[in-house]
Structures are given as structure tokens and as C-alpha cells.
Amino acid sequence: MGNTNNGPEESTDLGAVLRNGREILLQGFNWESHKYDWWRNLERKVPDIAKSGFTSVWLPPASNSFSPEGYLPQNLYSLNSSYGSEQLLKALLQKLKQYKVRPMADIVINHRIGTTKGHGGMYNRYDGIPLAWNEHAVTSCTGGLGNKSTGDNFHGVPNIDHSQHFVRKDIIGWLKWLRSVGFQDFRFDFARGYSAKYVKEYIEGAKPIFSVGEYWDSCNYNGHGLDYNQDSHRQRIVNWIDATGQLSAAFDFTTKGILQEAVKGQFWRLRDPQGKPPGVMGWWPSRAVTFIDNHDTGSTQAHWPFPSNHIMEV
């Protein structure tokens, strides 16, 4: 069972809680939560969350967003969102602090929706709001005047060019501000979209207590289904963790992919050729955040859902 009292909260050792490997996170939302007065709703549940032994609650993106779910951010410094007002969010953060459960901010910094048309007639300027960047903050591969992306593109929207010093400086300032508001942990959204070395810089700059990255790419498949050997898949996730300076954990998508096939009677999948668990947890348990579904894979999006009739077996 997790324990929040593992060392001083503002420890200078960024990896202390991470290396312990005993955190238990609650994803405190699904794809539809924005419809349900969410900050107020969640605040009522805090005593039960604490009693259940969770060390952190991952909250949905708290900043103003073009989409109600929060994943198309625009004004990062506005904490009025479809989940509730800034005032209600702060009341929730205060309640979590009172019950010694760490609030985890969903850090969506791969892309940002512009406010004004700029280069090429695209919305790639951010005039009139804090972090008033111009087209040089947007990668050249998504219509901006910045450099080429250091990762994969999130298509259809301006992707942020993290290679620009002014962009990183502004992002670190914003992350520090989120910490001052009361967020203690970070979850990095779409971590494939930009180099992990920037995640390292952001963690070192804002000093969250615990961080986890969403490094989600496809498992290895053949004509008959999922390959038995997923070593290259878990190696890519391990490489990402390494490149963050080992300062971030990662969601164990390898284990999810294998588990949801194994429960269909293919239990031979549950051990790799070395006799270890076949996902990231078999190689680096303290950095592997295991899960079976999230707001993307399950919920109403159901992009890659765990077989619902087998959930209790896990």
C-alpha cells in the first residue's frame, strides 16, 4: 500500500519518491467528467480517496482549453475550465493537501491552440493572452516558423517547438506556477511528441515530487495478433525514461497490451524468455506505472479497451 510520508515533501532529491516505487495513483476523471461539475464532485470524494491508500490523484488538464476535455490548451495561465472555476480547483487542491494526497497536474505541452492567424494563414500566434508567443514557437512541420519537431506530430494543431529557449523558459515558469498553486506531481501528456531531454529540464526546473510520462506507441503485432516478444516495445519506453535523466516514471503500455491478451487464456504471455514479467515492470519496476485502462484506452473513447469481462481477474 502506498504511503505519502516517504521523506520530506520538498526534498532536494528529485528521484527520492520515484525510486521508492511504491506510489499508488488514482486517475481522478474519465473522458466525460467535464459534464459533471468535476472539481466540486471530486472534492467530496477526497476523504474516501485518502482512506483507500492513494498517494496521488491525477487530475484532468486544469487550464483553459479549446476542447472541454482539456487536451487542446490555449491560455495556460487561466484555471477556469469546463471542470470548474479556479476557485473550485483551489478548494480541491487544498482539500487534497489536508488529506495528504498529492494532486497530479496533466501537463499538455506538446501542442497549443493559437488565438490569431499568422504565418500561412494558420492559428499559430498567441496574441492577447499570457505566453504571447509568435509563429517561432510552433514547429515548422505543423505550420510554424520554428524548427522541426524533436518527436512525433500531434496532427491538425500547432505543435510547440521545445528547441526554442524562450519557449522552455516560459514553460518552466508556468510549471513552477502550477507548483505554487498546489500541484505536486506531473503527468506528461503525449510524451512521444518532443524530446525526453526537455522533460528532464522541466522536472529539474519545477521540481515535482513525482512525474510520469505517457509514452504510448503501438505494441509489436504479426499476422496472427500480438507478438510474444515485446522487448523492443518496452525498450523504447525504457529509453524515454533514461533520456529524462531517470527523473520520470512511464505508464507501462507494454504490460497493458500483454495482459489484455493473456486474460483470454494465453497465460504463457505473462513471463518473458528470462522468466520475468514481460512489460516495463519486468525490467524497471520502480519506473513502471502499471494500469489497465485510462481515459483514452477505455471510457467512452475506447481506443484500446481492456476486455471488460476479465477486469476482475487482474
Here the CATH topology equals TIM Barrel
The overall pLDDT, averaged over residues, is: 95
| Annotation field: number of helices | 8
Structural class: alpha/beta
Name of the CATH architecture: Alpha-Beta Barrel
Mind telling me the C-alpha Rg?
Answer: 19 Å
Order of helices and strands: HEHEHEEEHEHEEEHEHHE
Strand content: 5-15%
The main pleated sheet reads as: 7 strands, parallel
Question: How many strands appear in the DSSP assignment?
Answer: 11
- Which runs of at least 5 residues are low in confidence (pLDDT < 50)? 1-9
CATH homologous superfamily annotation: Glycosidases
Shape: globular
How many angstroms does the end-to-end distance come to? Answer: 17 Å
Number of domains: 1
Strands of the widest sheet, in order across it, are 1-2-3-6-7-10-11
Report the CATH C-level class.
Answer: Alpha Beta
Residue share in helix: 25-40%
Polypeptide structure, described:
With about 325 residues, the chain is α/β, with parallel strands linked by helices. The protein has a single domain (about 25-110, about 160-310), classed as TIM Barrel (Alpha-Beta Barrel), CATH 3.20.20. It has eight helices and eleven strands. It has a seven-stranded parallel sheet with strand order 1-2-3-6-7-10-11. A two-stranded antiparallel ribbon has the order 4-5. Helix 4 (about 165-180) packs across helix 5. The two termini are about 15 Å apart. Belongs to the glycosyl hydrolase 13 family. Its EC number is 3.2.1.1. Its cofactor is Ca(2+). It comes from Gossypium raimondii (Peruvian cotton).
